[in-house]
Amino acid sequence: MYDPDFSPPEGVERPLWRSLVINFADRFAPERLPPLQLTSKPIDVVLPADAIEAPWYRTVFTNIGDVVSPERLPPLELESRPVDVGELLGDELNHGWFDSLLQNLRDRLAPEKLPPLQLTSQPVAGFGNEETLQVLDWSDLIDGPKVYLPDELTVAPTSGSGMMPAVAPVREAPPVNPALLAARMQLVRDIGRTVFRRKIWIGLAAAEIVFLLFAIFKLQ
After folding, report:
1. d(CA 195, CA 202)
2. Tens digits of per-residue pLDDT, 67-117?
3. Does the predicted model carry a pTM greater than 0.70?
4. Domain range holding 207?
5. Is 212 part of any domain?
6. Residue 218 within a domain
7. What's the CA gap between 149 and 183, in Å, rounded?
8. Is the separation of the CB atoms in 167 and 153 below 8 Å?
9. Is there a domain that residue 203 lies in?
10. Residues 6+ apart with CB under 8 A from 158
11. Per-residue pLDDT tens for 165-178?
12. What is the domain count for the chain?
């Protein structure tokens, strides 16, 4: 196994004076290296910059020569085994509507038999029921104390004029949460400030319109 070395090159850690001396030595007394021996055959490569800088008549004759007598290349030798990837999406879109209709009918009448799906995890039952989906009440979904209100008292009608109707007992006011009361007061205060600011802006806009109209009529 080869351990990759991500450390910086040695030239980065050289001091400044040493780098200056090496640069002066390479400038005035460069190292004499043996001639380069090429072991491969160079390939004629046309760079994009050279093709752009070529005159138009040269490109015209080159294109005509490629059409009349194209370059004969050796047959391509594949070193890998091709893999069947099926029909691509672009090929499917190029088919006609009748091919799509026949394929849908074939899938409907004789669908492809696939192997059974192997699940690695157990399915989760929805709301404790594996067959149907149950819609529960809000009282079962909300986590909180349940409050049962007392029934209203009904007063029986009396025939005698001297009998006084029974008075229903006065209910005690439920305790008020201080946090909710403070939030309500803050909301009312913010709404009041917003209405006041809106009135101010409307007044300023109306005053500006009146001033502009007065200036226009006065200048005329």
Report:
1. 11
2. 888 888 888 887 888 777 777 766 777 777 888 888 888 888 888 888 888
3. no
4. 194-220
5. yes
6. yes
7. 26
8. no
9. yes
10. 165
11. 555 566 666 676 77
12. 1
Say how many residues make up the chain: 220
Report the sign of the C-alpha dihedral through residues 191, 197, 201, 204, in that order.
Answer: positive
CA–CA dist 129, 136 (Å, integer): 12
Residue 114 forms part of a structural domain? no
Token pair 């047959």: residue: 75
The CA R_g of the chain, rounded to the nearest whole Å, is 46
Q: What is the DSSP string of the chain?
A: -PPP--SPPGGGGS-HHHHHHHHHHHHHS---PPPP---S-------HHHHHHS-HHHHHHHHHHHHHS---PPPP---S--------HHHHHHS-HHHHHHHHHHHHHSPPPPPPP--SSPPPPBTTBSSS-----HHHHS-S----PPPPPPPPP-S-SSPPPPPPPPPPPPPPPHHHHHHHHHHHHHHHHHHHHHHHHHHHHHHHHHHHHHHHHHH-
Which amino acid is it at 174?
P
Residues 6+ apart with CB under 8 A from 127: 133, 134, 136
